[in-house]
Write a structure and sequence with these properties.
Family: Belongs to the FliE family.
Subcellular location: Bacterial flagellum basal body
Largest sheet: none
Keywords: Bacterial flagellum, Cell projection, Cilium, Flagellum
Number of strands: 0
Mean pLDDT: 83
Protein name: Flagellar hook-basal body complex protein FliE
Number of helices: 3
Order of helices and strands: HHH
Radius of gyration: 18 Å
Shape: elongated
Structural class: mainly alpha
Low-confidence stretches: none
Main location: other
Distance between the termini: 58 Å
Amino acid sequence: MIQKTTFNPLTTIQSAQNTAMKDKTPAEMTQTFGDFLQNALNSVQSQEKNAQVLTDKYMVGQADISQVMIASSQAELSLQLTSQVRNKVVEAYQEIMRMQL
């Protein structure tokens, strides 16, 4: 049985884009971006917990292997996406620090 998959960070991106650019100060935009990052990290954490719960259920015979594999793949992809975004942010920060004033 395959369950419907959702990816929360994309929903968060869309809602952040709708509200972040409308008449906000830089401080407010920074706070909104910080909230966006926190929500994305919480989503990754919840997907990892879900994969662990399904793995535990599979061990006692209460879950199907396909559910476990799908949840594990989702958690893995979310973690890879998070680390790639982090790498790009660090790279952008380093580039800004190299700029001449």
